[in-house]
Structures are given as C-alpha cells and as structure tokens.
Amino acid sequence: MALAQSYRAELGIPEGATVALFSGTLGGKQGLMIIPAAASLLQARADIVFVVCGDGVMKPRIEAAVSGLANFHLIRCSPRSVCRSSWPWRICI
Fold this sequence. Notes:
single chain, alpha/beta, Rossmann fold, 33% helix, globular, four-stranded parallel sheet
C-alpha cells in the first residue's frame, strides 16, 4: 500500500478518489478515445480520476484530447507487477 500512496501523491490523486485505470498498448483498434471523453464529462467530479499507463500510436491523440483536464493522467507503463499489486484499483478499463 505504501507504493500506492506514493503514486497517488506523485500524481496528486486524493486518497479517497476512485481511480479508473487502463494499462497497455495505446493502439488504434481499442476504442481508447472513450476514456478522454469520459474524463471530460466527469471533470467536475474530484472523486474520480483516470490514469492511462502506456504508449503507442494513439498517445498523441489522447494527449491532445486531455489537455487541460486535471482528472486525467497519462503515464509511462510500469512493470506489470506494480500495476497489479500496488494500487487499490477500483476500476480497470
């Protein structure tokens, strides 16, 4: 849990916030643009934060779509063990 708190602190995610996570390749066939759309619709909700871990061809489009959204974090992939065990993920996309 200490690592999860470290990630939350690093990204500025409140302790009680629900984190919606996608971790993987940011490819064109995955329908990933729904995630920035959801983050935009929910930007007034401080208790819901979106985290996308990954890289791929969709990264520039996602970055452009989330510009200015405080409830969205696009980060580099961490080792799978970190994503699986260290965060108390409530929603995995």
